[in-house]
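Q: How do we represent a protein-ligand complex in a form that can be generated token by token?
A: Start from the inputs.
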Amino acid sequence: MNYPEPKHDSFPLMVMESSVYSPNQCVFQNDEFGVWLYHANCIEFMDMVSRKYPDGRFDMIFADPPYFLSNGGITCHAGKMVKVDKGQWDKSNGPEMNHEFNMEWLLRCQKLLKPNGTILVSGTHHVIHSIGYAMQQLRMKILNDITWEKPNPPPNLSCRYFTHSTETIIWAAKNEKSKHCFNYDKIREINSGKQMKSVWTFTSPNGDEKCFGKHPTQKPICTKRGLS
Ligand SMILES: C[S@@+](CC[C@H](N)C(=O)[O-])C[C@H]1O[C@@H](n2cnc3c(N)ncnc32)[C@H](O)[C@@H]1O
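Then emit the structure tokens for the protein with S-adenosylmethionine bound:
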């Protein structure tokens, strides 16, 4: 795969104090491609970036926030019945607190977007309705809700529900006035000359994509290709 030349103006290294919540450190840096990866509390981090760029800085934000679904349910992993426990970060604090958290981080994302910037947020039904409502409360402009359909989902062991086989990605612009960018011709070209629908079908990440270690909610690289 040939990637286009990176077109980025430089983004300075952010140096933060660690806090009780997180180390707040840059853990990966590639100046050539303009990639900086921080292990940080998102609220603290975005507040710091906002102080430096009060008028916004980013054309696009992709977020994969906690789903709040690790609450004692069961699921099927590698053919076995296991408890859903993705980590402490995934435990629900109740719908009101979860929504408050979503409002707080989305508000900061909105501030950091340039006037025509857009945000994409992925999630399951446990969180995505709160995300959509928070976007409406913040007067963002919802552009699409993309359905990621998984052709090989784990079976539903309880046999009391339809098999969960989708996740949603909401695409929204900073506000109603935003003139968002959509590379229509390019997207049509990669979709064999047809308009691309808002339902995307591909499998969860395979072993090759997990070469840097396992994360229970890693997203496949394909999702990013469609979005970039
Ligand atoms: C649904 S997962 C996304 C994982 C991502 N797709 C990946 O493959 O790394 C949500 C992530 O948000 C992180 N998280 C939870 N609360 C956070 C916060 N306040 N600030 C920054 N990250 C947070 C969790 O540690 C978890 O890794």
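Residues 95-112 form the longest helix (18 residues). The chain has one domain: 59-227.
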